[in-house]
Amino acid sequence: MNVIRSLVFYAGYFLAMLVCGVLFLPPAPFLPLRSRYRLLNLYNHFIIAWFRLVCGVRYDFHGHERLPEGPCVILANHQSEWETVYLQLLHPPVCTVLKRELLNIPIFGWGLQLLHPIALDRSRPARAMKQVLTQGKSRLDEGLSVLIFPEGTRVAPGSRRRYSKSGVVIACRAGVPVVPVAHNAGERWPGRHWVKRPGRLSLEVGEPIETAGRTSEEVLVEVEAWIEARLAEISEVPRPATAAPPATEQPLA
């Protein structure tokens, strides 16, 4: 049954991508940035709803009322593609830090390019770090929130990876709060397998963490502790006690 559900899901997934590419991409470059986000994120709304309907997933969301009114840096754990779609809708307009290769995907990547992401070259980590710090501050000054997955890559449920501090450094430099987000999406939408799994998908938004007068190290410790505590509560797969260090410092999606 899960295989059939997944096949139906991907049929709608790619059909929606094609339809949105034909109808939405041509006019999008001529729209103001915020209107462009609203138009292109219609695809995200559909995917989130389609996934719930077809794959037997029950959403359990909490804490959206905690989001600040102004721009912020959103830091979330990274398990699957699902959160890259949903978190675009959390506090728009949102600029996502992602790997440059995603922009080469037909239709999908073209749409991403129109949303002013921070696209990084993973083969040059030092340059990527400098780029995310510079462009992240610029995006916040423009009124966009910035979404970063501090683990740097997808991490399977039940595993941990040390967090990059680039996101909190951006927030501290810009004087904006950090909003931590925890979810168990990888248990429903596996990061490295196409078959989806029914069940409960939980996501919780934490209280904004102020950065004024604090070091990036202090903020990062608080962010990671909050996300890990929430993951221990909502995850079906037990959490490990310690995180494995990343091979390189890569603040990528």
TrEMBL record:
Key words of the record: Acyltransferase, Membrane, Transferase, Transmembrane, Transmembrane helix
Keyword presence, Iron: no
Domain Phospholipid/glycerol acyltransferase, chain residue ranges per copy: 72-186
Transmembrane stretches, start-end: 7-30
Nucleotide-binding among keywords: no
GO MF assignments: acyltransferase activity
InterPro entries, per the entry: Plipid/glycerol_acylTrfase (IPR002123)
Pathway linked to the protein: Lipid metabolism
Domain of life: Bacteria
Protein name, as recorded: Lysophospholipid acyltransferase family protein
Biological classification of the source: Bacteria, Pseudomonadati, Pseudomonadota, Gammaproteobacteria, Oceanospirillales
